[in-house]
Amino acid sequence: MDTLVVIPAYNEEKTISEVVKNLKRFGYEVLVVDDGSTDQTAKIAEEAGAIVLRHLINLGSGAAIKTGLDFALERKTEIIVTFDADGQHYAEDIIKVVQPIKSNQAEVVVGSRFKKQQKIPLARRLMNWLANLITLFLFGLWVSDSQSGFKAFSRKALEEIEIKARKFDWSSEIVAELKSKKIKFLEVPIGVKYSDYSLSKGQNFFVGLKTFFRLLLKKLIS
Question: Of 27, 66, 71, which Cα lies nearest the Cα of 52?
């Protein structure tokens, strides 16, 4: 297949059906990696038309991403897109994210929420800016949205990239891989639609703190 959209999901039964159906309307094949959910996420995703892989226990978003990317590589998919399950992304933005790969401008594309003017809560802006600074300090590469879950990869790039992080630190680990492997990447602006539900997901201060120490440990032992 030309493009596969990989969605890590943990207890996302409220949003996963709409997310999958929106992607299917644009003709994308969708893989949902159910990361040990205790609700009906897997069942609902499958009913909506997604391929579903399941972790027996919750391992973390990084582990779910790796499962999805490994599956895509085994199928020899040419372009792989990672996409959040909470409904914050627009399916129509995938065209913008994959185009630089199709035109050989980049091997990896990061969808950035901060490359365009839009309403983003101040707390999210501050958390992202801090995460960008930490990623720059540890790995020497500035990315305007280092924690974006909306990325596109060529198969060639994924064959070089190693993902070892099991939790949210997978996003910064990707930045480290781009730097160390000298993989050509671009950032493109994407839209975002926050809801009370999506704002309750993702990283908070304490999760961010644990993420920082995991990244610091990775840096020290690498």
Answer: 71
